[in-house]
């Protein structure tokens, strides 16, 4: 007994070590897979943002190239460009023409603003405060036209933006660089307006060294850089170009707010840089889910399964070894038990190995890397339930086979009440029963994903027949789901496809095929009757289930 306990303890130790190693490898693989998926999603998002920014900057360049500065001050300079602007992109908040006016042109500019129906046709500061026009001795940048024209934008023309803390430096830089320049994030249209950026493109008269004005496009920051899918793996934030300790984020309604980056707060998973308006913008990406926690949960499940299998193996080994030890002690007085004991042990080992191999295959295929935990759990429970049910039926028949119709009457087959069964009630072998039970479960579990083509649940018919002469007797099984199409039937899992196409046919030494007709889904299995019945297995089972003969003294 001490020796048996030592062996069981050794097996348990090996099982625990293997379970821990498997959990460790799964943990590392889950982290790697999640990291690759997150990096790929972030690269795609950053690329889309850069493409969007490049398109908007190209629009500004084309608009400034099509624009012709006036020979005199006008307030409807965007009129020729309106159709061209909308042909490119229409997601800007407002497009504007900012003229660079000399002091002697301001009176004419006010007259133009008044003539074009703007609500406040006076030259004033950016905050609507009056300017001392007589004190001006150099050109100023005055907003002269806007698009679209609506009650909110009609009051803007006439403002001078030279002293604006954001727009003023942007216009100066665009004039100095002679190319489009983007501003810092700023509220658009009003003080509490949506946060956005302004892109200004200088417009030059032919032969002039200084611009006659600027074409500007204003864009909301949320749709320009912070747009994100609700189902994405990350949340994106824009680092404030004026202060690296602040960043801008957008909520589900697209409202952009600024927040301080805390020292003890979450660290961005990745940072990507995009260019727009002659400057770089840094995008911070934060993973929505904790990959480490997910990896730990998956590793815990794998470790638990490994420990459970270790317990099963140790229990079975201990049980078999204990019975072997007990029977070996009785061999001196009961010689007649030797034949039966050997047969029982060999058969039990054979069947236990087969069951454990099947369970291992089910667990490995169901809990494959990247599988959804909830879906995998339901499939794993159903498949193991199907295996448990067929083992119960075989135990009740002393492993001499199972009636084929009995497999459809079991509670482990989903929607068994809607399956029309037709065929001779033959008795199949233990090996065939295990394969067919899993096969029936996979077929039935995928047969009710959605409504059928006529608004009803699929009607299922299972037929089988035995055809042929003597040595060429063939078992033919046909499963057909009427009122089912490729669009309504749930796609088979990877494990299901392997079971349907390879495992079940090979276990029975036959072939299988599946296909869709106009009104149904069909699965057919053809196998030699010898492998379905397996008379060798039946004879062997009957041998060690027969009553013992008394030992002759």
Key traits:
single chain; 553 residues; alpha+beta; 6-stranded antiparallel sheet; 5-stranded antiparallel sheet; 13 helices; 21% strand; elongated; EC 2.7.13.3
The total of beta strands comes to 20
| Percent of residues in helices | 40-55%
- N-to-C span: 31 Å
Structure classification = alpha+beta
**Per DSSP, what share of the residues sits in E-state strands of 2 or more residues?**
15-25%
Integer average pLDDT: 82
Question: Which stretches are low in confidence, meaning pLDDT under 50 for 5 or more residues running?
Answer: 450-455
Multimer state: single chain
- From the spread of the alpha carbons, the general shape counts as elongated
Main beta-sheet annotation: 6 strands, antiparallel
C-alpha-based Rg, rounded: 39 Å
């Amino acid at each position: 007994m001490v020796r048996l306990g030592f062996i069981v303890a050794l097996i348990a130790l090996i099982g625990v070590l293997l379970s821990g190693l498997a959990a460790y490898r799964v943990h590392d693989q889950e982290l790697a897979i999640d990291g690759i998926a997150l990096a790929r999603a972030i690269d795609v998002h950053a690329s889309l943002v850069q493409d969007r920014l490049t398109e908007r900057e190209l629009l500004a360049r084309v608009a400034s190239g099509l624009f012709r500065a006036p020979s005199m001050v006008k307030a409807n300079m965007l009129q020729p460009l309106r159709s061209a602007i909308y042909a490119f992109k229409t997601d800007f908040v407002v497009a504007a023409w900012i003229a660079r006016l000399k002091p002697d042109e301001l009176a004419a500019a006010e007259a133009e603003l008044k003539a074009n129906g703007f609500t406040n046709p006076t030259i004033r500061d950016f905050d609507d405060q009056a300017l001392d026009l007589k004190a001006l001795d150099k050109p100023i940048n005055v907003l002269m036209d806007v698009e679209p024209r609506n009650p909110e934008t009609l009051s803007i023309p006439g403002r001078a933006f030279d002293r604006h803390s954001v727009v003023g430096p942007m216009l100066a830089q665009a004039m100095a660089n002679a190319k489009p320049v983007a501003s810092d994030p700023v509220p658009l249209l009003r003080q509490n307006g949506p946060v956005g950026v302004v892109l200004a493109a200088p417009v030059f008269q032919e032969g002039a060294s200084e611009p006659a004005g600027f074409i500007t496009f204003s864009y909301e920051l949320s749709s320009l850089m912070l747009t994100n899918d609700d189902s994405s793996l990350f949340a994106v934030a824009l680092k404030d170009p004026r202060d690296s300790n602040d960043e801008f984020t957008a909520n589900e309604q697209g409202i952009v707010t600024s927040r301080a980056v805390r020292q003890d707060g979450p660290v961005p998973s990745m940072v990507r840089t995009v260019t727009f308006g002659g400057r770089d913008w840094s995008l911070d990406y934060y993973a929505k889910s904790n990959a480490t926690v997910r990896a730990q949960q998956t590793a815990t499940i794998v470790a638990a399964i490994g420990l459970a299998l270790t317990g099963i193996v140790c229990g079975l080994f201990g049980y078999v070894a204990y019975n072997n030890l007990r029977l070996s002690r009785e061999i001196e007085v009961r010689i007649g038990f030797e034949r039966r004991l050997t047969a029982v042990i060999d058969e039990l080992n054979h069947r236990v190995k087969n069951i454990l191999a099947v369970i291992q295959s089910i667990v490995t295929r169901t809990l494959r890397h990247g599988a959804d935990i909830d879906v995998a759990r339901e499939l794993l429970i159903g498949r193991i339930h199907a295996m448990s049910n067929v083992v119960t039926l075989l135990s009740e028949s002393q492993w001499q086979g199972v009636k084929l119709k009995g497999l459809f009457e079991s509670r482990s087959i989903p929607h068994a009440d809607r399956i029309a069964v037709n065929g001779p009630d033959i008795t199949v072998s233990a090996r065939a029963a295990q394969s067919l039970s899993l096969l029936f479960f996979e077929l039935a579990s995928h047969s009710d994903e959605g409504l059928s083509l006529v608004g009803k649940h699929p009607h299922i018919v299972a037929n089988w027949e035995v055809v042929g002469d003597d040595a060429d007797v063939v078992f033919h099984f046909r499963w057909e789901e009427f009122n089912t199409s490729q669009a309504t039937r749930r796609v088979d899992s990877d494990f299901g496809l392997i079971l349907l196409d390879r495992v079940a046919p090979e276990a029975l030494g036959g072939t299988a095929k599946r296909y869709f007709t106009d009104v149904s889904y069909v699965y057919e299995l053809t196998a030699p009757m010898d492998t379905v019945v397996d008379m060798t297995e039946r004879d062997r089972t009957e041998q060690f289930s027969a009553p013992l003969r008394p030992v002759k003294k």
